Amino acid sequence: MVHAPRPSPEDTIRPNPLDVGEDGCKDLKSHCEEEQRPNYWKPALEVILYNMLLWSNSKYISKQEWANISWETIRDNFEEGFVWDPNSFSGNQLSHPHSGAMYLSFARANGLDFWTSTVYAFAGSLMWEMFLEREHPSANDLLFTTIGGAFLGEALYRLSDMVIDESARGLQRVFREAFALLLDPAHGIDRLVSGKMWKKGQRRSKHNLLLDLSFGAAGMLIYDDGHPDVLLPAYGMRIQGMLNDIGIGRKVDPFDFFRFKVELSFTHTPFDEEIDTRIQGLGMTVTEVGLSIEGLLVGGKPERMDGVLGLFAKYSYQEGILTDKLSDVGLGFGTSITVPLDSQSRFFLEGFGAVYSILGASSARFAERYGREYYLERGEDYFFGSEMNTPYYIGPGSSGTVETRLVWSDVGGLFVRFDTNHVWSIFGGGASEHVLSSTMGLELRLIHDWSLVPQYENLFRFSFFDGERIQKECHVLRFYVNYRF
């Protein structure tokens, strides 16, 4: 993330970019959260109705075979127990966590804290797996829906809640409520059915939120086992931000500090890579989709440190021509720190680092290249994605991030980032996928909150199976224009 000039000490708490006026709430918490009594039954009913709505659509409108349930299929699910689900990568790693996010947000919108709301994510997923599918319940779906959904859902709930201002009127109120509904549908639906969408209330609380919108062009050069494979011109956009509502001596709740990034790249140039997500009818093909959340779960702000330290939670999803398929949920220790380099805070160094233990999903590159028969001949099977011909592994692993930037408030800054991701398949003879990436670039301030951001990215993917290795290398040069809200 490229930062704008460092705020002055008296302006440490920045207003939400959509804020108006002063706050009527007492603290930096969610929208007047202190005044809302927890309601345990209403979100339970909302989760059940939401699941039934999804099932009804699959059963009666899209006519999905797996939705043809009966008392016999429910009994069979309890008798057979959990299995590993071979469905598509995007369905298992993105759609299911998003459903988990909805479950969690129903609870958060009714005054429950993060930890209690996570129980609703688990219960909603368990209900779906045991009762609403004729297929055997999926262990990987339950894990990614609960854990990934909790991490994604908390971030979406907080972002949508920051948009809401119950003191606003007219078109501004309509815009805020509609945008909050778009960010977190569960939160918006709860506000709609409860009448909070049009209820008059207090002004928004302030939050220390940094938000960047970037867009521009990129060139992508991809080598497969050392041979040039694809050279693509592309366009892209990126939204990234950081919330830091942690203060010294104040109770710290999960995700009072979190970072997020959403990235999309697309091209007009045809190519042979198989990517699940495509923009139909516009003559464009999506080359890369990315979403990442990293939030402080347990920890805080040490008294003599300008930063945070503790146990972090992570959810990420990436798919495209560069990263192939890559997703994980994880826990690890990390820190974010700022070090002033002069007395006026015009020069300063910022850093973020975290190391995670993960449950990950990653492309099965040997299967993509040689097909399923390559595995079957060796008595193995990559298994996941086999129903949709989108092969990937699931298994334990690790990931890490180190990011640092040197900032000169009046001019811009330099930034460098390193990421690693390692997944060992729970199936397959020593099958594993390893991704190493580095990014370096400049922020050159233009006028006001606008800046030019040229950056270079380098990515290596190493794939191992049965003692063999294949390698992929990507080089990307981006020229983005960035606006800081």
Q: What's the arrangement of secondary structure elements?
A:
Blueprint: H1 41-61, H2 71-80, H3 89-108, H4 114-131, H5 139-163, H6 170-183, H7 185-194, E1 209-224, E2 227-244, E3 257-267, E4 285-300, E5 307-320, E6 324-340, E7 347-363, H8 365-370, H9 372-376, E8 392-408, E9 412-424, E10 432-445, E11 450-465, E12 468-484
Antiparallel strand pairs: 1-2, 1-12, 2-3, 3-4, 4-5, 5-6, 6-7, 7-8, 8-9, 9-10, 10-11, 11-12
Helix pairs in contact: 1-3, 1-4, 3-4, 3-5, 3-7, 4-5, 5-6, 6-7
CATH architecture of the largest domain: Beta Barrel
| Spatial strand order of the main sheet | 1-2-3-4-5-6-7-8-9-10-11-12
The percent of residues in helical segments reads 25-40%
Fraction in beta strands: 35-45%
Uncertain residue ranges: 2-34, 272-281
Count of helix runs: 9
Summarize the structure.
The chain is of the alpha+beta class and 485 residues long. The protein contains 9 helices and 12 strands.
Folded structure, characterized:
The protein is α+β, with helices and mostly antiparallel strands and 485 residues long. The protein folds into two domains: 33-198, no CATH class; 209-484, Outer membrane phospholipase (ompla), Chain C (Beta Barrel). Helix content is 27%, strand content 38%. A twelve-stranded antiparallel β-barrel has the order 1-2-3-4-5-6-7-8-9-10-11-12. The two termini are 13 Å apart. Residues 2-34 and 272-281 have low confidence and may be disordered.
Short descriptors:
485 residues; alpha+beta; Outer membrane phospholipase (ompla), Chain C; 12-stranded antiparallel barrel; 9 helices; 27% helix
